[in-house]
Every structure is written in C-alpha cells, then in structure tokens.
Write a structure and sequence with these properties.
The chain has 399 residues and is α+β, with helices and mostly antiparallel strands. The protein has four domains: 106 residues, N Utilization Substance Protein A, Chain:P, domain 4; 61 residues, OB fold (Dihydrolipoamide Acetyltransferase, E2P) (Beta Barrel); 138 residues, K homology (KH) domain (GMP Synthetase, Chain A, domain 3, 2-Layer Sandwich); 63 residues, no CATH class. The protein has 15 helices and 16 strands. The protein has a five-stranded mixed beta barrel. Helix 4 crosses helix 7, helix 8 packs antiparallel against helix 10 and helix 12 runs antiparallel to helix 13. It is elongated. The chain starts with a helix and ends with a helix.
Length: 399
Amino acid sequence: MDYNLLDALELLEREKGVPADTILDALANALVSAYKRTPGAAEEARVTIDPDTGEILVYGQELDEDGNVVEEWADTPDDFGRIAAQTAKQVIMQRLRDAKREQVFEIYEGREGDLITGIVQQSDHRYAILDLGDAEAIMPSSERIPYERLERGNRVKAYILEVRGEGKGPQIVVSRSHPEFIRSLFELEVPELVDGDVEIRVIAREPGHRTKIAVASNDPNVDPVGACVGARGSRVRQVVNELRGEKVDIVEWRDDTEGFIAEALSPARVKEVRLDEDERTAEVVVPDHQLSLAIGKEGQNARLAARLSGYRIDIRSESQDLGLDLEEEEEQSAPVAEKPVEEAVVDESGEEGVDVAADTPDETAVDAGPETNTEEVPTPAEDDETVPVTAGEEENEEN
C-alpha cells in the first residue's frame, strides 16, 4: 500500500463521514477474506495495516482446540490476484455501508417527535420516500394527509414518528397526519410556545379537513390565541399553507368544563351547557341559526369539540330545547286530572272506574275542569255505566 491509498481513505472520511480507522479495519477484514481464497493459505490468519506507512502484513495462524494461537508466521502473498482484489473491494464497500448506517442511526436515535424537512424522492399509494440529505425517511400511506399529492422534488416537512434499528439499516418513519405534527409546526412559527409563555394543551385533528387546538397562557400579559394567530393571521397562515389548506381553529383553554366546551364549539355561539359528570356527557343549547354551524359539516365541528373536551356532546337548538321543556311541564302538571280519566276510560263498564272518579275530591275535579278538556272527563251514569259526558248528551238529543 502506498500513500495514495491513505490519501484516498482520508478523502472517503471527509466525503462519507466515516472515520479512517473504521475504513482501515474494514480493509483488514476484507484482506483476511481475500487471503483465505488464495492457494495454500492458512485456515486462520490476521492482517495488520500500518496507518502511517500503509504497509500490509499477513500472518498465518495455527489454533488449538480452545481457539488459542499455537503458532503464527508471516505469510504475505506477493499478489492477491484479481479474485482477492474483487473480494476486498466488495467487503470494503459493505463495511462502509454498515458504518454509514450505524452513523445515521446514532444521529437520529432518540429524535422521535422532531420536525424534519425532506425532498420527495418517490411517492405511490403504498408509501413516500423523503431524502433528508444524510438519510432517507419513509412515510407509509396511513401517515399521509388524505388526498395530498406529494410530487417528486417537492420539499415538505414531516414529524419523526419512529426510528427503527434494523438489519438493513435504520428506518426512519415519518408522518404528516399525526396530531403532534401540528404542535411542531406551530412551534416553528410561535416563539412564545418555545419560551413557555404559551402552551398547546389539547389537539384534535381530522387530517386533511380540520384541526382544533386549545391553547393556554402562562403569562397574564400574553394572549394565547393572538400569539398563535399572529398579526393579521400571519403565523397560522404559514401552518395552513404547510397543511395544504387544512382548516385550523384555535380556542382558549379554560379550567371550567362548561366554558371550555362552549369555546371548543367555536365559531358557533353557545347559550347554555348542561353537564353530566357521571356519564361524561354535555347537553349544549345554541341559538336556532347557530345549530348547523355548531354541528359542522357532517358533524365535524361537534366531533372535534368532543375529542377536545373529552365529553360526549349533544347539541340542541333553543326551539328544540324549549319544546322538550314544555312537554316535561305538561307531563308534570297533568297527572292529577288525567289519572281518574284514564282509569275510567279503561274500565268503561265496571264500578271500579266510578269509584276511582268518586275518590277524587270534588274541589280537585272543579279546579282541574277548566284546565283540561271537559269533553273527555267521564261522569258516572244512573245504570252504573261509565259513559263520557259528550256521548250521553248526544243520546238525549236523539231521543
């Protein structure tokens, strides 16, 4: 070996980022494999390479049953030959690839949750491959934004979901549909999120359609919603552009659940929220003209608000809620007058119905008469038959 090869190793170190010592170690192992292919070679051998002079020495070895070296001698061939050189080249290239993979794994290991930028190399219905410069990332179809077209050469951002150390090298799995992708995008645009003055508490997302985030302020002088929106919407607009037009709603986090549910349903205005803590449900009353806005297209706004709050939300308009309340009041006020009527009608020919009606105090019957339909109130007849008043009057007129 001459100094030209050492210079080449230094060049590889600069270009590939792999230390020269690693390359020399790979070369030594490759030369051992090549030596064993030469005629008359020892079964075991070791190769040394002087890093200063580049001199290569091959030592044949004889081992005992325990693997200890019994005898060793210099056995450097004059020429390894074409097969030996080709074998050495293949092993060196393989070791270089392995060393590069290990280096990439060390760079990206533990970076789950980071935001990266890559160039689309390949995209089909199964996955997309992003070139990160020093590595490649794979984006499965399940982690892509629905209906988004990733054309080759496009520069896109993605969220590192997982870094796997596999036999063929590290596999970096990225996502653009994960809810935390939204958090990372806002952290790029909103310095208050990085400083800790503002924080994103909850994220609810339907990728490609709509996202709701709840933000809170740790500084009383900072408006969390205004900080995320930016001047004239400049900050949130950058996020929306990266999401290819996906709608983003920013609401303020509140400690009281009723107020937070009302905020979560924005842009709709909420009149009243009734909670059932045991069932974790919420009945929400909105103005009539706000009902469709509160529900959203195909229930999207209500669905995202439910995910944001953690409560099952039932939305009603004022008219619907008022109608239900009237029915409840009628059911509560009617039983005193209706009970004997129902029993009397059921028992048309028996005395039981007459007795039930008679058991009702006269004052109650008089008081209840004007409030109810008198035509339906039965009165006992002389022949002990229970006959409605209107029916008896009709028979008298005929006679």
